User: Fold these one by one.
Assistant:
Number 1:
Amino acid sequence: MKRREAITELGDALRTLAEHATTTEMPAGDLLRAAAELREIAARLGERSRGRSTLPSADDLLGGVRMYNPVTGGGSALAPPLRIEVVAGVAIGRCTLGLAFEGPPRFAHGGVSAMLLDQILGHAVVASGNPGMTVRLDTVYRAPVPLLTPLRLTAEVRHVDGRRVTATGTIATEAEPGTTLVSASGTFVGLRADQTRRLFGPVLQTEA
Ligand SMILES: CCCCCCCCCCCC(=O)SCCNC(=O)CCNC(=O)[C@H](O)C(C)(C)COP(=O)(O)OP(=O)(O)OC[C@H]1O[C@@H](n2cnc3c(N)ncnc32)[C@H](O)[C@@H]1OP(=O)(O)O
């Protein structure tokens, strides 16, 4: 689909911009010129935009296509993006974090690790056929997550108890997949029909 490719192209440019804006040591004058040019571009993009209760026209919510998901979305300026595939019930994710995700020098911000894990746990939960929202996420930071280093994440469902699903996951490097840097356990809850209507009613109406 042409529009999705264009969205991904723009997202890619924005991610490059965010990384260079984070690492640049250019003088103040150059930064101010860049800011002015970027504001012009932003204004142009904002001429036609959607509100909070309208899905992106390029998305396919029920088909799992979310172009602006801040973790996996090709169109997101914020997403690493994390690429996930499910193999025999295990979600496997790959990404490399740039300096835009830095917390302690040289390493990822802890909140970014939690965000990646929330997403991949959620993916495993959806893949198990028990979709739900995160109600709890416990994260254990064993070693710092290096930037500019290919990462490998895993997640799988451990337990289904009615509407409650428990999943666990890890972050490691591609080079040392057996050494867990961060692990997480999450609880997800499937929504009742009334909860779905209350939270997502306006969006589902525009979808229909
Ligand atoms: C291919 C595409 C991939 C797509 C992949 C997509 C991945 C997306 C990953 C991102 C996921 C997110 O970030 S989701 C966004 C972050 N999460 C949220 O914003 C959720 C905020 N929480 C809520 O709105 C609410 O908690 C609800 C609506 C989820 C549930 O309502 P509730 O009133 O709390 O719970 P209720 O329905 O009464 O109870 C359901 C059961 O869950 C239990 N329960 C409720 N909270 C908890 C809890 N913290 N810890 C343990 N258990 C809990 C209750 O005790 C009850 O157990 P029992 O009595 O039945 O035994």
Number 2:
Amino acid sequence: MPADPTPHGSSPAGDPAAGATRAPAPGPDADADAPARAWARGDAPARLAQTALADLPWQVGVPKPDPVVVVDGVTRTFGGLTAVSVDHLEIQRGGITGLIGPNGAGKTTLFNLLTGFDQPNTGTWSFDGRPLGKLAPHQVARLGVVRTFQLTKALSRLTVLQNMLLGAKDQSGESFFKALLPTTWRGQEKANTEKALDLLRRFKLDAKKDDFAGTLSGGQRKLLEMARALMSDPKVVMLDEPMAGVNPALTQSLLGHVKDLREEGMSVIFVEHDMDVVRDISDWVVVMAAGRVIAEGPPESISQNKDVVDAYLGAHHDAPLTSEEEDRVLAESRAAIIAERAPAGTPSERTGL
Ligand SMILES: Nc1ncnc2c1ncn2[C@@H]1O[C@H](COP(=O)(O)OP(=O)(O)OP(=O)(O)O)[C@@H](O)[C@H]1O
């Protein structure tokens, strides 16, 4: 579903035309110690993330109080096309960050780069201060950054439980030395199976554990992907369009699961086109267009941002046509039909008109 950039919230800046670089300065009562006090009070993670982000200016590249992922100068080109060009981006620890943007903005490519599924032309990025460049996906996952895919990658010919076990951090065959000690890996396998079954219960997939993943519905596959991602005890979970193709009944359940990840202390970055979902669960929203980050801020700031509205309108292919556009399309169609009839035969012979 294409994102709807129409304003829904109200901007503290009071300026609906505020562009990406015209973010409000921190308010007079901006309080640098607020996040630390919130931690000390033992506030719920959702509240902590919101407190940490509350007084930040809505500025592209704005430093976060406690960044878990930091991206610097990352570019990726395909031939002449610059798919990603991100100067500086920080993701706040413990928050849910929504990554939005029109089709082709570079969101999935950025996900691919950050998780080792693709390599950039330039740039560096880090997780918890540790550079992640040049690492393979399984190494990135082992460090604590996992992802799901827009089109789910559940292996159809494996059972649900087998799919889960593939997500486990310590596979029995992973280490040659462990494989030489059957008791170690049997114990590990048992622990992994128990963990998988726990997660399947939590995601209400336990009754399907012996079914082939190929028999699951689209929504159930999304749940399976999320559950499998949790098998490796990640710190950062990156979800690529987790709600796409999911029926409304499962949407609420998926949204609940995403919020639960934050409650358990994980940082979530998710790509989503449905702005209702973005508004509902994001603590912070990053907007990309044509490979660049064009805006950042809390959800209510985004639909007010002129650059964001322009980016979406520029790419909004399914907006209703204006009457001028309708006339133009009709004229082009008529011209095409006439051209088609011209070379040979009568209209009825060629087109049935
Ligand atoms: N492997 C590739 N080869 C060539 N071009 C690519 C490749 N992968 C992505 N692109 C191009 O890079 C640009 C960014 O694509 P990307 O899939 O990252 O966008 P997106 O924001 O995730 O889009 P969507 O919301 O439609 O999934 C697009 O123009 C796309 O066609």
